[in-house]
Every structure is written in C-alpha cells, then in structure tokens.
Amino acid sequence: MQTLSTFYVTETSALQHQLLYFRHDDWHKLCIPLMDKLSGETFERIDPSELDASRRLGVSHVRLLPKETGVRPIVNLGRKAKLRPFRGSSRDEATQPSVNQILNATFHILNYEKSQKPELLGASVFGENDIYRKLSTFKAGLRRPDGTMPKLYFVKLDVRACFDSIDQGRLLEILRDTLTQKGYMIRKFNQVQFSTGRARRSFRKRAVPDCNVDFLYAYSQQPDHVPGDHMHFVAYASKLAACLRHIIFADQVVYGFDYLEDTLDLLEEHITDNIVRIGTDLYRQVVGIPQGSVLSTLLCAIFYGDLESTKLEFTKNPGNLLLRFVDDYLFITTNVKEARKFLNIMHEGHPEYGCIIAEEKTLTNFVDAEVQTLVLAPDAEYFPWCGRVIHMNELSVQWDYSRYNGRHVAHGLTVDYGRQPGTKFRTRFLQMARQHCHAMYFDSSLTSLSN
C-alpha cells in the first residue's frame, strides 16, 4: 500500500506489460497538458444536473496510459457505471449494467449487416484470416506463368488519432443507411465442445431480421422449411455444423428483439452523448467516438469503408490491393503511378471525415517527389506492417520479431495470481503460440521455403 500511496503504477502500450512507476507529482505534471487539450478539443465539461433519467447509457471512467509522446486517454466502457441515481430515477446504481453490456445487441445487429454487405467495410481486415485470404488471392492473380512476380510498390499510412477524429454527424448518416431492417431478432444459443482436456460451454448470439406475421404463419406450418434467417433452430444448428466439428448446440429459446428506431437512438446517444468521468468532473465527448467501446472497431471499419468507396475507388483496379487494420493502411500495387496517387490523395486529408494522416509515420519502398515519406533502404527485402513483415517480391508474411529487440520476455505476458496460476499461464502461452502458427505463415503458395 505504501507503493500505491507514493507512485502511480501503470503499464504502457509501447512497452507491452512492463509496469512503470511515476511519483504522483510527476504524473500530475505529465497529465495536465493532455487534460487541457482534451477539455478544449475532444471533450466539454458538463454539470451533473444535465444528466437525466432518459439516458440509457451510464458514465464511463477514463484512465491515462503513457505513450512515447505524452499520454493517451483510455475509456473503460466494460466497467459497471457507479452513478448517483438520476433525478427522478429509482434505478439502483449497483445494478446498472456497463455501457458495453447495453450495446451488446447493437454489436450483433451491426455484425449481421456486415455479413450481408461485406462491401460496407471497404479494405478492413480484422485478423490473420482476412489478411491471408486477401494476400493469397492477390498473389495468385499476379503470378506469371513462369512463377515470377512483377515489381511491387508499397505504401503504409496511419490515420492520426483515428477514433478521436471521426466526424460524428457523418458517421450517423452512414449508419442510418447501413441499418436496413425494421427490426432485429437476437438469436441466443450455447456451444459445448471438448477443449484443453475438458468440456467447455460458450454462449453465442446472432442477429437476424425481426420476425413478422408472415414468418410466424410459415413457422407454424413447416418449422423445418422456413426460408431465410428465421429457420428452426435445428435447421440453423445443422447449417453451423456443416463447417464446425465435435460441437453440441443448445437453443436458449428466449430471444431478444430490437426495433430500428431504438437501435439508431442508442447509437446516436453512444456517439454524440458519451459521458466520461475524469477525476471528479464529468465530460461529454464532442469529437470522435469512444475507443473502449465494443462497437469502436466495427464503427471505424464502416466509417472508413465509406471514405474508401468515395475517395479510393481506384484501389480496386487490377494489380492493386488495399488493406486497413483499424487505422493502419497498406497499399500494394504493380503501378508506381497508382502508389503515388494513393499517397497524394491520403496526405491531402479529408476534413469531411476528420481524416488526417500522420505524415511522420508514412513509409514507402520508393521515393516520391511531392510527398516526403520514410523510405526503406534499397537492399531491404521485407516491408513492416501491423506487427508483421511482408516480402516485397514474394508477398510471404512473417512475424516482425525485430519489435522485441531489447525487451525482456517477461514483459510480453501477464501472470495470474489466482487459484490456478500454472493453468492460466499455459492457456495464455498456447494462445500466443496459436497466433504464430496460422496457415498464412506456412502456406507454400504464399510463403516459399527460401523466405
């Protein structure tokens, strides 16, 4: 306890899980410039009397995380809100769910729309599976009959303060066009499977278009032959079983329903009326979206997917591949003119979207006369992007282990001091190993043995 009373203890994104100790007076001095900037640009201070009982979302807590240049605000939307009851409200603050819990149904609704209209996401990739699929397809289309590849040009860009710069009004316009159903049903079921030596149960939810009178009549007549998303659960589970093995599916029977108007109202409150507590004061976010939200990554993908459809349509031309992992862009092309065009368009900025590129982070494997960028050395073989390196001729992918130079392995993972620390460590270690054993790193059609 003496340590906590003397130091502010925190981790940092730059040093993984390494703990840093700041004297309280030093930490206070470090945070003052950011707090002044936040209250003047991203947030506005509000009086607690402005909150009323009509709010569905509670107040979130903010903590500040050190980074290379200053500190970054992290909003904890997974923590249950502890508020004094709103004026005129009888709700018990101890039972108030977290913001992310309230947004859970909306998350599944957006995922349904994403599955129905993948083009909404533009160049978004959410992990190894997406990167593997797109790179493999791209390479197969470029490979010549003799097995050689054309010269490739690479551009890497980073959007400055991506979540904090999204234009709220523009995002709401896009979401109103994205949600197409009058209402949504949230299907709930369990999955039971044998994993790591024991049976494990997981809960699943899927959103589908809301039931209507025609569906109810069809279901009553032929429950196993209802078309579309409202098939009987047995038929739905059979469909899932076609691509999964050794799993038991159990229907939870009671489903949730959300109407379009309610979903849009909740999204608007979340985006334009996000209330956070910093110290003892309350603030409303006036620019950008909450970064700690369960919806953040998906909203960002939809938002920048719209930008790409209006500004970067040329990146879909043959010989081009555009990837975006949250706010990190990678453009690969066989045409240096296309690479320069992408570079110029993005560096011009798009104020209507709030999109400004962090010019100091832009990296290319060629020299551009108009835009100043970091350029790889002429003898470099690999191009770094999002913790991976891509061979600039073969398009093979490896983990970027150079990131770990000078870092202690103990800072790469956390230790659980609960009842089964050994089991927790083993599970965490296997998760890390599984990430490094994805098919993308071993597929001979993508990764040659020489690389």
TrEMBL record:
<dbReference type="Pfam" id="PF00078">
    <property type="entry name" value="RVT_1"/>
</dbReference>
<dbReference type="GO" id="GO:0042162">
    <property type="term" value="F:telomeric DNA binding"/>
</dbReference>
<comment type="function">
    <text>Telomerase is a ribonucleoprotein enzyme essential for the replication of chromosome termini in most eukaryotes. It elongates telomeres. It is a reverse transcriptase that adds simple sequence repeats to chromosome ends by copying a template sequence within the RNA component of the enzyme.</text>
</comment>
<keyword id="KW-0158">Chromosome</keyword>
<keyword id="KW-0779">Telomere</keyword>
<keyword id="KW-0479">Metal-binding</keyword>
<keyword id="KW-0460">Magnesium</keyword>
<dbReference type="Pfam" id="PF12009">
    <property type="entry name" value="Telomerase_RBD"/>
</dbReference>
<keyword id="KW-0539">Nucleus</keyword>
<dbReference type="InterPro" id="IPR021891">
    <property type="entry name" value="Telomerase_RBD"/>
</dbReference>
<dbReference type="GO" id="GO:0070034">
    <property type="term" value="F:telomerase RNA binding"/>
</dbReference>
<dbReference type="InterPro" id="IPR043502">
    <property type="entry name" value="DNA/RNA_pol_sf"/>
</dbReference>
<protein>
    <recommendedName>
        <fullName>Telomerase reverse transcriptase</fullName>
        <ecNumber>2.7.7.49</ecNumber>
    </recommendedName>
</protein>
<keyword id="KW-0695">RNA-directed DNA polymerase</keyword>
<dbReference type="GO" id="GO:0003720">
    <property type="term" value="F:telomerase activity"/>
</dbReference>
<comment type="similarity">
    <text>Belongs to the reverse transcriptase family. Telomerase subfamily.</text>
</comment>
<dbReference type="InterPro" id="IPR000477">
    <property type="entry name" value="RT_dom"/>
</dbReference>
<dbReference type="GO" id="GO:0000333">
    <property type="term" value="C:telomerase catalytic core complex"/>
</dbReference>
<dbReference type="GO" id="GO:0046872">
    <property type="term" value="F:metal ion binding"/>
</dbReference>
<keyword id="KW-0548">Nucleotidyltransferase</keyword>
<keyword id="KW-0808">Transferase</keyword>
<dbReference type="GO" id="GO:0007004">
    <property type="term" value="P:telomere maintenance via telomerase"/>
</dbReference>
<dbReference type="GO" id="GO:0000781">
    <property type="term" value="C:chromosome, telomeric region"/>
</dbReference>
<feature type="domain" description="Reverse transcriptase">
    <location>
        <begin position="46"/>
        <end position="390"/>
    </location>
</feature>
<dbReference type="InterPro" id="IPR003545">
    <property type="entry name" value="Telomerase_RT"/>
</dbReference>
